[in-house]
């Protein structure tokens, strides 16, 4: 009830103080928000940029299944097999309170492997991290042990509560059904090196760092096709390193199978024959620590078999090779089994070279006649030296056909000496014909054959150009020997030391000259001439097929993994020998008589030559005859390829084009 005189003026208006408080509060909040934004965007910019970058997409390379290497009939020379590999999740190990030590100790106990070895494998490789370490991505399972027995792997798989982050998967590795046969031909695989990844940007899209590539043999030459095309899997990864999902996935394409011209049965027979021959030589008192053989299809140049002894089991490379085994593969005491004598061994061809000398003597401008007879004395004198037949034998007057069959040295000595004189001797006027050395080059000696295998040797044809280069390179040492002599030799053999000093004096002044002795030695495949077995087989194949010098080839075709597509590998180039059909037929006839009534008669005693025609030529090399000449460099030349392996060069050896030029 209102009193009289009082009036209702409505609700009372608030004062100015609350409004000020609200305004101050709003302004303060705005200022704090502004300061916070400034703080986040300016002082903390780098921090939050790194956090944002940590939430990204991680791309992993998915290796393809490597193609098989097959022989001409489809029999596997190299295939794949699976083995159990125990792996660890890197991020789960890192999130464990002890960094994963407890679970790794349990794994080491189950697998009976030292804990320290497993622990080191989980470290990520880097510039300051020593091996062993993990060269792959931390988003891939880290391999802890390979080729694990199934019963051991099951102990881990069935008790995941005790082995968190540890798994066992099937892993594909190379398998060699022939064992240690054709090891140098097939080659081996090794991981991509960090240096390769650093040097070649294109490799980073193909390899993870744990993938393997071909390092020798067919595995190296045809690595790209055998390897196939890697796939890619893109993971979404948060800032903690956890995979939150798969963004996309491109499947890998399996590698192609390589079909070769090799016949696995012939390869086996060849290697058994070499081993038996070496054993027989040892039993007869002859040192035989190495051997090589090459079997070619004379019509095409395809390689049917190529063998080298001693050999080794290529499975030693699986899972990594230990230092002791690697050193043994490179050692001279073990016979350097990594070296393919068929491709890299360089030897004096001895009397097997006489076919080229005969061709040169007949085809030369003032050549001899195939219808003439020639004297075969026990020796001939050239200058102040006597050059003899084997064991001083003499055969009277005979034809060139018979000279090949009985391997008469003196016939070819005289032929070479006559050609040397026709050229003007050691001081020719004008351009000499040099029929013998030119014919040697025409037969393919002195340069690689171009076979589709790596590290092939070139051999050496010691022509006038080579003598000049060698003289210039060795003149200083030769002149020093001419002045000082050979004190070490003189103590044991003064006469031989005097001879060596006389030779050094001659070489010091005019060692660049092509002398009569050089020509005579050259004619029977001695002196400074060296060839590889593959070169010699190729030359004889050209005689057999009527004069075509084929480029040897091992690879024939690629077949897709599912067998639906095939691609033929281009055949090698070919050249024609500058030898008439008459001369080639003459050589064929003479070589066919060598096993029947010549120097190979003993080796083919009891063989049915009438049913299975055989032609060939024997040769017995006695070395260079002069220690100071480069014949003493034969074994170091073998080791040059081994040194390249020791340096771990990554080369992709390809010779799919024409014949390489003469060095």
CATH architecture heading of the domain at 350-461 and 517-542 and 576-623:
3-Layer(aba) Sandwich
Average pLDDT reading:
83
Helix/strand-derived class? alpha+beta
Coarse morphology = elongated
What share of residues are in beta strands? 15-25%
Largest sheet: 7 strands, mixed
Describe the secondary-structure layout:
Elements: H1 16-41, H2 45-54, E1 56-62, E2 69-70, E3 76-88, H3 90-95, H4 101-111, H5 115-121, E4 142-145, H6 150-157, E5 166-175, H7 183-186, E6 189-191, H8 194-199, E7 212-214, H9 217-221, H10 223-227, E8 231-237, E9 243-250, E10 257-260, H11 264-283, E11 291-296, E12 303-309, H12 323-330, H13 341-344, H14 354-363, E13 373-376, E14 379-382, E15 385-388, E16 396-399, H15 400-406, H16 409-422, H17 435-442, H18 464-484, H19 487-492, H20 494-510, H21 516-523, H22 533-545, E17 548-550, E18 555-559, E19 566-568, E20 574-576, H23 581-597, H24 634-646
Parallel strand pairs: 2-10
Antiparallel strand pairs: 1-8, 2-3, 3-4, 3-5, 6-7, 8-9, 10-18, 11-12, 13-16, 14-15, 17-20, 18-19
Helix pairs in contact: 14-16, 14-17, 15-23, 16-21, 18-20
Describe the structure concisely.
The protein has 663 residues and is α+β, with helices and mostly antiparallel strands. Helices cover 38% and strands 16% of the residues.
Give a structural overview:
- The chain is of the alpha+beta class and 663 residues long.
- Among the domains are: 152 residues, Penicillin-binding protein 2a (Domain 2) (Alpha-Beta Complex); 186 residues, DD-peptidase/beta-lactamase superfamily (Beta-lactamase, 3-Layer(aba) Sandwich); 50 residues, no CATH class.
- The strands form seven sheets. Strands 2, 3, 4, 5, 10, 18 and 19 form a seven-stranded mixed sheet that branches.
- Strand 2 and strand 3 form a beta hairpin.
- Helix 18 packs across helix 20.
- The protein is elongated.
- The protein starts with 15 loop residues before the first helix and ends in a 17-residue tail after the last helix.
- The C terminus is likely disordered.
